[in-house]
Amino acid sequence: MPPYYMARYLPILVQLLLGIGLASIIVTLSYLIGRHKRSAVKGRAYECGMDPVGDAGHRFSVKFYLVAIVFILFDIEAVFLIPWAIEMRRLKLFGFFEMLVYMLIVLAGFYYIWTKGVIDWNQPEGADGEPL
Amino acid sequence: MVAYLLITLVKCLVVLLILLTAVAYIQLAERKIVGRMQSRVGPTRVGPFGLLQPAADAIKFILKEDVTPDGAHKFLYVLAPMLAVVLALLSITVIPVGPIVHLFGITTALQITDINVGLLFILGVTSLGVYGVVLAGWSSNSKYSLLGSLRGGSQMISYELALGLALVGPVMLAGTLSLRGIVEAQAHLHWFIVPQIVAFAVYLTAAFAETNRVPFDLPDAEGELGAGYHTEYSAMKFAMFFLAEYVNMITVSCVATLVFFGGWMGPLFGPALLRALLPVLYFVAKVCCFLFLYIWVRGTLPRFRYDQLMGFGWKVMIPLALANVMVTGLVVALH
Predict the structure, then answer these.
(1) Helix (H) and strand (E) counts in chain B
(2) B82 contacts A23? CB cut-off 8 A
């Protein structure tokens, strides 16, 4: 084991390079060995054998974006929880109540998005009838 | 330093070799076991008991035509499966399979590297895995692929929250993020499964969703989306998504073993050689139990509906994981 701590991250770099190497070799081999015979039909998008209708670039539900936005908020919460969890033994009850307050604030937001119907995939609109 | 890098290189190559073989044979085991569960025998023709089936599959995959759809974004279309595989292989680096050993005069850990944020590293790398799914679906320019990747993306980020929050409880008990530290905190059979049973249930469910396996395999629901986000992929690029999926299955099984089931801990007995080998055997046996569970569930449960999946993730799993964190926090604070 080398003296500096950061050297422990070197093996991850080695694995990353090996992984990239492996993935490139697989893709290249498959490209070189497999036969290539193009045709107009083969190049079309798969739609169960029917002629493709339109393009795939059409619009989709806004809920996918909302889930992504809500995810960022909660993921940041999870990131705050992890260092707190490690130091919990030293923080004792003080740390617990500090986190409880923080958690209640986050849960208030969670309650709001819940009542708004962001995580309700059955309703096309929000719970109060307004479009999201 | 050169010796360190050489040892690392050897370890990485050994791990890659074991992983690729394991993936091939888990796939065979899955086909055999699911076959039995459905009163079939599974593959039997290639080699004794069908044991050479993975080799035959690999040859077939590599000989197939590598089709790129005309409408595809060429660069991202090639990048997506590579990204999936590289990220899957990367998260395995911090997983310890046994205690520190003395071999041929070298003292080394049975782990590629031991960093003090090991668990956080795994969470980070597995959450990058969502890029493989989203890019594959988007770059294919096909409706099935796009719908599959949208579903996959929002499913993976939703369950990732539950996954991360479930791991906070055991981390609190261990007081460290190093996977080796977490295992050492569970010495003398103090496995975290007992005080953290709720966290384990949440983790296991979220892990199934994270790896897109039954009953959460909506991104590649055959009945409704063709093959989901990899509908347009063929030849080895198609196989790479499976490679990534199975490596991810191994990773989450390893994490479950390390965090909840005491990793390589177990009763040691017998001569010195056996005592050295037993921890690794315990670890492998526990991981195999989880992999069998994956296959068993696939042979048993039907698929969720999408609204049920998202509702369950947000309304049950996340509150449950948060409650577990707060209760564990209170207990640790009062201790």
Answers:
(1) 13, 2
(2) yes
Q: Whole-model pTM?
A: 0.91
Q: Which of B7, B23, B65 to mutate to test the interface with A (most CBs of A within 10 A)?
A: B65
Q: How far is A132 from chain B (nearest CA, A)?
A: 17
Instruction: Show the tokens assigned to A21.
Output: 């190497």
Which amino acid, one-letter code, is at B193? I
Write out chain A residues lying below 8 Å of B171, CB-based.
Answer: 82, 85-86
Residue A14, both tokens:
């080695």
Domain with B232, as residue range(s), is 56-334
Whether the bond between A124 and the residue before it is cis, its omega within 30 degrees of 0, is no
Which residue of chain A comes nearest to B151, CA vs CA? A64
Residues of B in contact with A67 (CB under 8 A): 154, 157-158, 310
Residue length of chain A: 132
Amino acid at the residue B183:
V
Backbone phi, psi, residue B108, to 5°:
-145, 155
In a domain, A53, yes or no: no
B215 contacts B297 by C-beta, under 8 angstroms: yes
The span from the CA of B50 to the CA of B40, in Å, is 14
Task: Tell me which amino acid residue B250 is.
Answer: I
Contact B133, B84 (CB under 8 A): yes
- CATH number of the domain bearing residue A95: 1.20.58.1610
Q: What is the distance in angstroms between the Cα of B36 and the nearest Cα belonging to chain A?
A: 30
Residues near B50 by Cβ (< 8 Å), separated by ≥ 6?
A: B28, B32, B42, B43, B44
Range of the domain at A7: 1-35
| Pair B329, B172: CB distance under 8 Å | yes
Size of interface A-B (CB pairs under 8 A): 211
pLDDT per residue as tens digits for the range B5-47: 888 899 899 999 999 999 999 999 999 999 999 999 888 888 8
Q: Do B164 and A78 touch (CB under 8 A)?
A: yes
Q: Give the residue from chain B lying closest to A107, CA to CA.
A: B319
> B65, B171, B183, B188: which is closest to B123 by C-alpha?
B171
User: Same structural domain for residues A73 and A31?
Assistant: no
One domain, residues A29 and A71: no
| Residue B101 in contact with partner chain A when CB distance is under 8 A | no
Classify residue A57: in a domain, yes or no: no
A23-80 pLDDT, tens digit per residue, is 999 989 888 887 888 887 787 877 777 777 777 777 777 888 888 888 888 888 888 8
